[in-house]
Write a structure and sequence with these properties.
mainly alpha; two-stranded antiparallel sheet; 5 helices; 66% helix
Length: 124
């Protein structure tokens, strides 16, 4: 490797490209089953946690791959937006815009899921 200090950015870029390739193959977001820790304080808390995770996963599934990539790299990996932009090969302004739009879309999706659906004149 030419510049060992750039290894992390290089590895992120490979990961992002692999995720994009996999998403193109799948063309459909799939749920994955995860084992939840057993040491939750109470069953009620555990159910709320599962419900919250489910709500977030449904909202996250509505994001485009570009928005997901920026959101995950910034919030989950903790990378500064400048580094996210560099890793994805996009301008810093585009990364900021995608993060803003992803956050807004997540908020709107969660709020939309919280509104009761009216079926045949009744709340569902």
């Amino acid at each position: 490797m030419r510049d060992p200090e750039r290894f992390e950015a290089w590895s992120y870029r490979i990961l992002v490209h692999a995720c994009y390739a996999e998403a193109k193959r799948a063309r459909r977001w799939r749920m994955s089953v995860r084992v939840l820790p057993e040491d939750m304080s109470t069953p009620t808390d555990g159910m709320l946690s599962v419900a919250d995770r489910d709500e977030l996963e449904r909202a996250f599934a509505r994001l485009s791959l570009d928005h997901r990539a920026v959101f995950v790299m910034h919030h989950y990996l903790g990378l500064p937006l400048v580094e996210v932009a560099e890793t994805l090969g996009i301008p810093a302004g585009t990364a900021r815009s995608r993060l803003h739009n992803a956050t807004r879309a997540l908020r709107l999706a969660i709020e939309a899921d919280a509104v009761p659906v009216i079926e045949e004149g009744r709340l569902a």
